[in-house]
Design brief:
3-stranded parallel β-sheet, Oxidized Rhodanese, domain 1, 2 domains, 276 residues, 12 helices, alpha/beta
Length: 276
């Protein structure tokens, strides 16, 4: 029987990666986290015994609280959040049940560069196109919803990353971890290295690679993704505004990859629906 104020692993897995996903708060103890140093996609660690200090940072948004087994720590924190007017649930079974279900988890050691507020910081070239919008979308939907992205001139990316404790990505430099590798684009690399190689994201990665590397033969939809990406770059002179608009674009492509890639549409079929 489901525990009151809880959410199942299956239901949460469907919400992650979508705009409807609640704030995911990982309150495992230091020892529990050391045993399994990986995070449920989109979750960020918080100190369970400091909930009174950070509750307001959630901005009243619905939350799911996660601990090792979905017991005392998560229920206590969720109850505290509800006293602050936050609709808070507990992940039933915690990270243990999530892992048992074979669902992806993000290695914590890949997320080292954070600001004073605990947000990951990423630096790349200004005037983004395909890869440099797709990667921020992946990070905000599956890694850190509050991630900060700094778009700077190409020659300044490495210097800005070093001075502002950021992670450089999608630049051609030998010491940059998050960049193209052979035929793979940066989005491919992130999906693999962040432990997110699910069928929908691998499908989306093929589209991104085709659009980003001039390989429309990889997937018919790659040409459409490239066209939409170039169109956005012409509409928005501000890179952050373009990123905001691009989030919806990649939300749609992800949901197509996950839920609708087998669906077909034809004018003739729709026109004849409902006829006797």
């Amino acid at each position: 029987m489901p525990t009151p104020n809880s959410i199942s692993v299956e239901k949460l897995a469907r919400l992650i990666g979508t705009p409807a996903c609640p704030v995911l708060v990982d309150v495992r103890t230091t020892r529990d986290f050391a045993d399994v140093p990986r995070l449920i996609p989109g979750s960020r660690p918080r100190q369970w015994d400091a909930v009174a200090e950070w509750a307001s940072a959630l901005g009243g948004r619905p939350a799911v609280v996660i601990c090792q087994h979905g017991q005392k720590l998560s229920h206590g924190v969720a109850a505290w959040l509800r006293t602050s007017g936050i609709a808070a649930e507990v992940l039933d079974g915690g990270t243990t049940e999530w892992a048992r279900a074979g669902l992806p988890m993000v290695p914590a050691d890949k997320l080292r560069n954070c600001d004073a507020q605990g947000r990951t910081v990423w630096v790349t070239r200004a005037r983004p196109k395909v890869d440099r919008i797709a990667c921020p979308w992946l990070i905000r939907r599956f890694v850190d919803p509050e991630a900060v992205f700094l778009f700077v001139p190409p020659g300044e990316v490495a210097h800005v990353a070093r001075h502002f404790n950021g992670e450089a990505f999608d630049i051609d430099a030998p010491d940059v971890f998050w960049s193209h590798r052979g035929e793979l684009c940066t989005f491919d690399v992130m999906v693999k290295e962040l432990g997110l190689a699910t069928p929908p994201l691998l499908h989306l990665a093929t589209l991104v690679r085709g659009a980003d590397t001039g390989r429309p033969d990889l997937a018919p939809e790659a040409a459409g993704l490239l066209a939409a990406s170039l169109g956005l770059s012409r509409i928005y002179a501000d890179d952050l505004q373009q990123l905001d608009a691009g989030m919806l674009l990649y939300d749609a492509f992800y949901r197509w990859c996950r839920d609708a890639s087998e669906e077909r549409h034809s004018w003739e079929g729709d026109r004849t629906k409902g006829k006797a």
